[in-house]
Specification:
By secondary structure, the chain is an alpha+beta fold. The protein is built from ten helices and 72 strands.
Length: about 1000
């Protein structure tokens, strides 16, 4: 009976400490998100000995150079120079105190145990405060603190008595304690290099040997929720239950942890291993878990796993996002298209061909035949015969028949040899009538009954450029997205086209999503468009989108939209879209998921179809530049609903730290008050949003982003009653919703200075009244005298002043006109009326400073009129000047007139174009400018019409680049444009 009681007591202790969340056991270990922090992020030292968590939710890490408290974004270090009177270093053990705060062990310089609570540090009373070489700390359910040192085992009772438990037993005396498991009945299991011992009062038993544990160094002990006790050490990991020892693994266990789902995690020499039902997976250096693993292995109250190594602190999390890449078996991680095939897994297209993800593993599918290697895959589409259509970069369309058993059918090809206008295929769709629609850079081709049935050429029935996507609506209309607009093909065969600047508020259309009401949502390079009732409604950065270029548009089972972009994947509430469209809401509460949340890359891929897919299980898969991003919308919804602990960390008045309490009385001469606060959400700290205000001082809430530092600083607060309020919630921040908002308040009462008290104010009023009466009497007397003298002068001076005022006004107007004319001439070219070179250089210098200061983009282009000398030679310089003027006017009309854009004559027939715009936008505008100039007809003196062309060299400012290097780069590219035949833009 005594033997059976140990596992039962262990299980009670385990259930009492069970966290509310846990890592998703259905995921493979390489599907978890691994985050990493080192000394560069604020850790005192990269070797993490121990990890623990306090009652508020802060994570604590102990290192050689001290301890650090972590709120998920920011480390607060405590080292030799931080805590007055203490040398905080060599922290090998940390434990949460049931009375509040944390107990830490200190190293050889001022060794012993200290307790930190509400910002106050103090040594434990008695001998425990100076106990050296402490390696393990564990509080028992009865409040007893079990202390393991390099020499013995001690217990610290609640009354402060320190007892040397191990000094009287040969197995514990002069031996380093490596692991302790307190039990609810006041007993404890203790591990050292000689084995496992049970301590009950003054009795110490070699309990491991009695349970059948072989001679081994015990490094870790934990109660198992499946029953019994888990023991890890140099000989592996064992389960002790019912008087028997059963080995789980023979590998050395540096640390061991059984999570709340019963998965066993073991730190080994090869990395971190998870054992589930006799099988294991390893998370090691190829997954980013670097360094030799230390004994620090911890599951926090959110179920996240924290690992300490010689290379810093690591966190394993299972947020709503994870990625699939090379470690998952993909041959190439630059994913272009994704599609789910019923019963055949998920097919992933990339530059090396196609991989299939099925049953948690990836396998390659060969598309090599007819003497050609595996093609670069751009697009995929399910075939009605159960096969798969594959669009390639340069091999046309491949049909992969449905597999028969384990054998794959023989593929065949549609390419230029069979009449396809282009082998570059980015979009595919097989329609209900069996026809295959193929989108390429030459337009749309219809393949039916084994032959090319029809071709719609780009620039004729369709917009110019690449065809990116097909979408068939519920009423049978075929929508076509291209790089230069979009089109719809109605059921009667008629086609309507939208092109940029002709009613279409974007340039490229990357994806479509139709609603049951017949309206259409369009992902474009200018945001999200809603086509409804014959008009477009545009949603872009002005309505809150983090990025305007959207690629793939998916709808989850809750009706919300998910859009991929070059800055992550955005969740956009359909209800919020409707509210903004109807004018009931100013901005969209967009939730962005990026690389920090677990995406393989924040850069998603588009311009090929489908660049994402909603799976049958509801998960959303997106193509990125570094693998496949997988998002679980239900997990994201649960994460948003997760509660937040909001903590006021410190209050300072004129540099003096005040006690942590809800009310503070401030002296009248207080000039500066600082309130430091943070929200604790270790699972997703970057998603926290804050706002605060000082009631009685601030007119409105002050919102902050998800930066690391959260300090509210107030200077010269007024006297009286004040109340500081701070709120936090998970993104997207919708403060109108009360649920999910955490609030903290701190009250202040600032005393008034003596000169603002009631008796002083009454005296001021009395003196002011007396002085005012005397001054008023004197002024009235003098006023009467002055009035009599002035009346005599007024009449005499009136006419003279009137005449002189008229003369001065005329002279002033002439002077103003002259100054304006001179200022204009100093900064403008008299011939073209554009800015001159001086103005262009000044604008360029200011734009570079703005780019360095604010991170704004800057693109510079040098534009030169082609064959301008021949124009002068043939028609004379007068007509050459006319050509310069007209080209300048066209340039100003097409590219100028925008904020952050300047066009200047830079010399002769050369012009400078400065644009504070992203590279892609700036380049597109230059292309429009070049084409516009080429299309402009200029009447020549001989009655003919002259069409001028221009060559353009473009460069964008790189970090730290000097202006002369930027201009030289643009000039070199202008020279290459001339060399390559003129009438072109060279930008790389």
């Amino acid at each position: 009976m005594r033997r059976l009681s140990i596992p039962g007591l262990c299980l009670l202790a385990l259930l009492a400490a069970m966290p509310a969340w846990a890592l998703d056991p259905g995921r493979r270990v390489d599907e978890y998100t691994l985050a990493h922090w080192t000394m560069e992020d604020g850790l005192p030292h990269n070797l993490v000995h121990t990890i623990s968590q306090d009652a508020e939710g802060y994570l604590w890490a102990g290192t050689w150079e001290g301890a650090a408290r972590f709120d998920g974004r920011r480390f607060t270090p405590y080292d030799a120079g931080t805590v007055q009177g203490l040398e905080v270093e060599g922290v090998r053990a940390i434990a949460p105190d049931p009375r509040g705060g944390m107990v830490l062990s200190l190293g050889r310089i001022g060794p012993g145990l200290v307790r930190v609570h509400e910002g106050r540090w103090e040594r434990l009373p008695g001998d425990a405060g100076t106990l050296p070489d402490v390696s393990v700390l564990r509080f028992g359910p009865d409040g007893t603190l079990w202390i393991g040192t390099d020499h013995s085992l001690f217990s610290l009772q609640r009354d402060g008595r320190l007892r040397d438990v191990g000094g009287t037993h040969a197995g514990l005396a002069n031996e380093r304690v490596q692991a302790i498991l307190p039990l609810p009945d006041g007993q404890a299991l203790v591990g050292n290099r000689h084995g496992l011992f049970r301590v009950a009062g003054d009795r110490v038993q070699d309990w491991g040997r009695a349970q059948g544990l072989p001679d081994t160094s015990v490094l870790a002990i934990q109660a198992s929720r499946w029953g019994g006790v888990l023991v890890g050490g140099s000989a592996g990991v064992w389960r002790l239950e019912h008087g028997r020892a059963r080995q789980i693994t023979a590998e050395r266990a540096e640390a061991m942890l059984e999570d709340r789902n019963g998965n066993l995690w073991i730190s080994t020499l090869d990395g971190l291993r998870r054992y589930v039902q006799g099988r294991y997976e390893t998370l090691g250096e190829r997954n980013g878990l670097m360094g030799r693993l230390a004994p620090a292995l911890f599951e926090d109250r959110d179920g996240l796993l924290w690992v300490g190594t010689t290379n810093g602190l690591f966190r394993l999390s299972d947020g709503p996002v994870f990625g699939l890449g090379r470690s998952s078996g993909l041959r190439d991680i630059y994913v272009r298209s994704i599609i789910e095939r019923p019963g055949q897994g998920v097919w992933i297209g990339h530059p090396m061909g196609v991989d299939v993800w099925d049953g948690g593993t990836a396998r390659a599918v060969s598309l090599a035949f007819d003497g050609k290697a595996d093609p670069s895959v751009l697009s995929l589409a399910n075939a009605r015969d159960g096969g798969l259509w594959v669009g390639t970069y340069d091999q046309g369309v491949i049909h992969l028949p449905a597999a028969s058993g384990t054998a794959q059918g023989v593929p065949w090809r549609i390419d230029e040899a069979r009449g396809l206008p282009s082998n570059h295929v980015r979009a595919l769709l097989e329609r209900a009538d069996g026809s295959l629609w193929i989108g390429s850079n030459e337009g749309v081709t219809v393949y039916r009954d084994g032959r090319i049935a029809h071709h719609y050429a780009a620039g004729e029935a369709l917009p110019d450029g690449n065809v990116y996507v097909f979408h068939e609506s519920g009423i049978g209309e075929l929508w076509i997205g291209t790089s230069n607009g979009m089109a719809v093909m109605r059921r009667d065969g008629t086609v309507r086209t939208w092109k940029p600047k002709t009613g279409f508020p974007a340039v490229a259309a990357f994806d479509f999503l139709s609603d049951p009401d017949g309206s259409l949502w369009i992902a474009t390079d200018r945001g999200l468009l809603h086509w409804r009732d014959g008009r477009f409604v545009q949603f872009d950065h002005r309505q809150g989108l983090p990025n305007n270029r959207l690629f793939r548009l998916l709808e989850d089972e809750n009706g919300d939209f998910w859009a991929s972009s070059n800055r992550g994947v955005f969740r956009i509430s359909r209800l919020a879209l409707t509210a903004v469209e109807n004018g009931h809401l100013a901005r969209l509460p967009v939730e962005a998921f990026t690389h920090a949340d677990g995406l393989p890359s924040s850069q998603a891929n588009g311009a090929s179809a489908p660049a994402g897919w909603r799976m049958r299980d509801g998960k959303l898969w997106f193509a990125t530049a570094n693998g496949v991003g997988v998002i679980d919308p239900d997990d994201a919804r649960r994460q948003r609903a997760k509660g937040i602990t909001l903590v006021v960390e410190a209050v300072e008045a004129d540099g003096r730290v005040l006690p942590l309490q809800s009310y503070h009385a401030l002296p009248a001469d207080t000039r500066r008050v600082v309130i430091r606060f943070t929200g604790l959400n270790q699972r997703a700290p970057e998603r926290l949003r804050y706002r605060y205000r000082m009631v009685g001082f601030d007119r409105d809430w002050i919102e902050t982003d998800n930066g690391i530092a959260h300090d509210a600083v107030y200077t010269n607060l007024p006297s009286g009653q004040l109340r500081f309020e701070v709120q936090a919630m998970n993104a997207p921040a919708d403060w109108a919703r009360k649920e999910g908002v955490a609030t903290q308040t701190v009250a202040f009462d600032k005393a008034a200075p003596w000169w603002m008290r009631a008796w002083a104010m009454a005296a001021y009023l009395l003196l002011l009244g007396l002085a005012g009466w005397g001054v008023l009497t004197l002024l009235m007397r003098r006023q009467r005298q002055r009035q009599r003298r002035l009346e005599a002068l007024v009449d005499a001076r009136t006419s003279e002043l009137s005449e002189k005022n008229a003369q001065l006004e005329q002279a002033g107007e002439a002077h103003t006109r002259l100054l304006e004319q001179l200022a204009y001439q100093a900064r403008h070219d008299p011939l073209t009326r554009l800015a001159n070179r001086r103005a262009g250089d000044a604008f360029l210098a200011e734009a570079r400073e703005a780019s360095l200061r604010e991170g704004r983009p800057l693109c510079v282009a040098l534009l030169d009129i082609d064959h301008f000398k021949s124009v002068n030679d043939r028609y004379g310089h007068a007509f050459g000047d006319e050509v310069l003027s007209q080209v300048a006017a066209v340039a100003e009309r097409l590219a100028g007139g925008h904020d952050g854009v300047l066009i200047a004559r830079y010399g002769g027939e050369e012009f400078l174009v400065c644009q504070q715009l992203p590279w892609t936008v700036a380049r597109a505008r230059l292309e429009v400018l070049r084409e516009g100039i080429a299309q402009t007809a200029i009447d020549a003196p001989d009655g003919s019409q002259l069409h001028c062309t221009v060559s353009i060299g473009m460069a964008d400012l790189q970090p730290g680049q000097a202006l002369r290097d930027l201009l030289r780069e643009a000039d070199e590219r202008l020279y290459r444009a001339k060399q390559q035949g003129r009438n072109r833009l060279v930008s790389n």
